[in-house]
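Morning!

This is the sequence you dropped in the shared folder:
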Amino acid sequence: MKAETKNLVGAIQFFDETIGTKEFAHIVRRLLHAALRLHIKDNNKQYSEWIDDGYFWLNEFLEKIDPQLERDIYETTSQSTN
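The structure's back. C-alpha cells below.
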C-alpha cells in the first residue's frame, strides 16, 4: 500500500473511530482562535511564521472536513440579497 493511501486510510479510521469531523473542526478552531489571541498579545512575535503557516494549513484542512467558512460566506451573501 502506498504511503499516501495509508495516510488517507488512517485519517478515515481516525474520524470513524475516534472523533467526528464536526467536533474535531470545532475543537481545532477554538485552539486556533486561542493561539492567535495569545500571539497577538505577545510583543516578541517569536513564532509568527510558525503560527501563520500552521493556521493556514489547519484551516485548509478544516474547510475540507467541515466547510464552515464557505457556508458562513454563502449564508451572509444569501441574507444580504434577500
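Headline: The mean pLDDT is 83.

More detail when I'm at my desk.
O.
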